[in-house]
Amino acid sequence: MLALALACGSSALAAQGRRRTGAPDQSAPARERVAPILWEPEQIFPLAVAHASDLKLTDEQRVQIETIASKLRASNAPLLEAIDTLRPPRVQLPDPDNPSAPTATPPPPSADSIAVIVARRHALGEARAQIHENIRLARDQMNQLMTPEQQARLQLLENSARNSAERGDPGSFGAPHDAGAGEQRSGRRGGYGPPR
After folding, report:
1. Which of 33, 64, 124, 180 is the most exposed place for a label (fewest CB within 10 A)?
2. Residue 132 lies inside a defined structural domain of this protein
3. Rounded CA gap, 146 and 65, in Å?
4. Residue 159 falls inside a structural domain
5. Most confidently predicted of 3-7, 40-44, 170-174
6. Contact 43, 195 (CB under 8 A)
7. Mean pLDDT over residues 141-169, rounded?
């Protein structure tokens, strides 16, 4: 009887020790892991509009920022379409759980096919560089509309939204999803909605 009481007492003490040392509580549900997401530079425009009151933007400033963002979307749209067209198809990797018959090694690429690949990569690089330049110019236009205090406050909001997005926090856009964000472009960088 004494041995049974000692055994029960020692298991209770061990459980208390686990709680104190921070060992995970097996009864608590596991927190769902959310993958980190990219903060896209053009998200600064809907973020500024969504936080117009925090930034103390005038109605005229807000409308001008919306106009800048709209022009940016229009100028980048054909570039994004070009990127989708130029991007090579994804390579289908074999399923390790469902091995298929081995396939023959393809022949080395011809000089013409290499030239096509190189030209595609150059065109992709140029389109991406133009998108980034368009965003930079639009951001410069927006900054010219704002006071230094508004610019500093927007920088803090952007840093917070970027950090939240990278942690995978829900609502990491830092603004309501309907605040001029537009729809997320599927599977490509340079989208105009909240990051995926």
Report:
1. 33
2. yes
3. 10
4. yes
5. 40-44
6. yes
7. 90
Task: Provide DSSP, 122-167.
Answer: HHHHHHHHHHHHHHHHHHHHHHHHS-HHHHHHHHHHHHHHHHHHHH
Q: In this structure, what is the dihedral angle of CA atoms 13, 14, 17, 21, given to the nearest 10 degrees?
A: -170
CA nearest neighbour of 102 among 92, 111, 90, 94: 94
Residue 42 has what DSSP assignment?
G
**Structural domain span for residue 80:** 35-85+111-177
Tokens read off for 69: 């963002």
Query: pLDDT tens for residues 60-97?
Result: 999 999 999 999 999 999 999 998 888 877 777 777 77
Residues in the chain: 196
Q: How far apart are CA 47 and CA 151, in angstroms?
A: 12
Q: Rounded CA gap, 143 and 8, in Å?
A: 69
pLDDT above 90: percentage of residues in the chain? 41
| Report field, pTM of the whole predicted structure over 0.70 | no
Unique residue bearing structure tokens 């469902």:
98
Query: Has residue 191 got a pLDDT over 50?
Result: no
